[in-house]
Amino acid sequence: MISYITWKIIELDFTHTTILLNSGIGYEVGINELTYSKIALEEDVNFFIYHYKTENSENLFWFLDREEKRVFAELIKISWIGWKVAMQILSLGVERLVLAIKSEDNKTIESIKWVGKKMAEKIILELKDKDFAIDFRKSENVIKANSIDSTLHSSIKSTLTAMWYNPKDIDTVLFNLPEWINETKDIIPYVIKSLS
To answer: pLDDT by residue (tens digit) across 35-64?
Structure first.
């Protein structure tokens, strides 16, 4: 099974690219819009490949890193999600997607083309307990995810839950704190205002 290739890009489109191997064989490889926006026509490009085989077809998909490939593999295990929908979902960005799953942010997932309310709920239900190796603080796709330490996060969440705020909503706001909010005296009023 193919998992990693060094190649030369000879054609690039929003949904696929044609690659030429040193052996002279060319393959069409599926990509998502985010991947398209990040790659350029270079001589040699090294990325991760997912070789998707079914009874009726074989497809190759190109991913920016190992974790994005893993999230794709988990998405296509979910009923109702084929590879086209999974690639569309990953256009959101793997960090942003995992953040939405962990904070049970249905609205962000529902905003993806071809994903409705029921599918968003199913994605969260199936994947929220998976341990994805995402460092949100290095991500360009989220504002400042999980930027406060876990002790402070728990303390603020406990305080606001005692004030009858929804724990899931609290997590969502805390995971998306703007860069300039970094002290407890500013965080709690910001969260309350965001939830009001």
So the answer is: 777 775 555 566 789 999 988 989 999 988
46's enclosing H/E stretch is strand 45-53
Q: Which CATH architecture fits 4-63?
A: Beta Barrel (2.40)
* Residue 106, C-beta contacts closer than 8 angstroms, at least 6 positions apart: 117, 120, 121, 124
Q: Which residue is it, tokens 């599918």? A: 119
Residues in the chain, total = 196
CATH number belonging to domain 67-133: 1.10.150.20
Q: What is the pTM of this model?
A: 0.66
The rounded distance, in Å, linking the Cα atoms of 38 and 58 is 25
Residue pair 54/48 in contact (Cβ under 8 Å)? The answer is no
Q: In the predicted model, is pLDDT for residue 176 greater than 80?
A: no
Rounded (5°) CA angle 101-170-116: 35
Bridge partners of residue 58, in order along the sequence: 53
**What would you report as the CA-atom Rg of the chain, rounded to the nearest whole angstrom?**
19
Residue-range domain boundaries for the chain: 4-63, 67-133, 150-195
Question: Percent helix, strand, coil in the chain (nearest 5)?
Answer: 45, 15, 40
